[in-house]
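Question thread 4412

I'm putting together a teaching handout and wanted feedback from people who do this every day. The idea is simple: show students a protein as raw sequence, then show them the structure tokens that encode its fold, then repeat with a second protein so they can compare. Below is the first pair exactly as I plan to print it.
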Amino acid sequence: MILRTVALQNASVTAVATTCGVGTAYDLGAVEAAQTAYAALHLLTSAAGAANTILFKIYSASSSGAGFATGETLRFTFTALACRGAEWGTPVPGAFGTCQKFWRTQWATSCAAVRKALVEFSRTCQ
């Protein structure tokens, strides 16, 4: 059973308008040994042209602040998308340890066009 899904990047609130960026870090708790982490990407708008791609990743860390730069762990990488679409991330088995409880997105684009995306995170209950 999957617990609630949390939007790490919410298109209805903030569009992705820069070539690279990071989202807000959220304390969503650690993924325990008996749990599995899940993620999904929904690219709702895109820039014109097949060469204009966007790539999203999801990281976990023990701190929401400066610790993210040095203590983060890559958990999900989505396929670079050039047009609207959706993708499930490969499920990640738990046992991250209690310190890896902050989650955030990171993106890189090939152009500075405004895009809207929804990146979601969830995990199974124990």
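The second pair follows. I'd like the answer to focus on this one:
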Amino acid sequence: MPTKSSLPKTTRTRKTITPLVEPEYIPEPTILEEDTITFKRGHFFTALSVLTFAIGLLLGYLVWGTNLFSKAGANSQAANQPSVVEEAPQVIRYDIPDEGYPSIGPEDAPITIVEFSDFQCPYCKQWHQTVYAPLFAAYPDQIRLVYRHLPLTSIHPEAQPAAEAAMCANEQSAFWEFHDKLFGGELLGAGVYSQYAATLGLDVEAFESCMSNRTYAQAVQADSDFALNLGVNSTPTFFVNGLAIVGAQPLDVFRQVIDRELAGEFPE
């Protein structure tokens, strides 16, 4: 099952992060057709005679040269046997700025999770509907979640406006309430954003002015540029104290990483 939305492929080479956890993909099976050989009846007896003669010669060689062939084969196998070296999993911590961005959770939490997300991404929505609340319930005083924007504008036309709307709500200290509305609803659009602002008791006139002026367009673009330059190519992507988790991973995956991080099992 896919767990992430990916950026469209281009001819330009993109950098790619090294994730601690990423989605599993099942490759398509490769089916090879069998070759078929047809013999005529007359050819069969000729081939059988040749085969019998060849078997006789082979038996002679085997009787007299078994030891020679065995030694030669053993030496050849030993020489060609590749050495097996087990590589330890690569653990990379990325330096992800988290100050000055919308966040929820204690400022001094031992675990900071920076999320790059897209309000129109179905996998981002899936994660927020299935993992977001249980994760905070499991670690009420130990995690702080920082939200940063990565709108995949070529496939999600409302991702950029929705991100700007959330930042306009953030101006009135309502980012997370607006965030929950965006991920909890079925529709996106200018009228919907204004309706959410009214429902949350925001100053709708100020909100709509913020939207029409595109006050946060550059801030959203800066988040996106940072993520792409880092090598983030899909949403959602998370950094748990700098350790990358790609895709809408289930709660158990986050618990495993967080528990090991709290226990000091990952290198600094």
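Top answer:
Good format. For the second protein you could add a caption like this: The domain at 12-22+91-262 is CATH 3.40.30.10 (Glutaredoxin). Strands lie at 5-6, 103-104, 111-117, 143-149, 234-235, 237-240, 243-246.
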